[in-house]
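Practice problem: predict the structure.
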Amino acid sequence: MRLDDMVTVTCTDTDKTEKGKVVRLGRDRADIMVGPAVISFRMTKPGLYVGNLHGLEFTMKTG
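Answer:
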């Protein structure tokens, strides 16, 4: 995963998916812009990131 990559973000509460853009990367963190919102994700397992925004949980899987 690199800056400006497009990724798929899934809301685990509603089972909806959206495309997002990687705007910031850290060692085990990633910030993804989905529409006007930026969701901060933390790596919980290799290849699986989890984030929260407005009381909803989001997941993102990487290759």
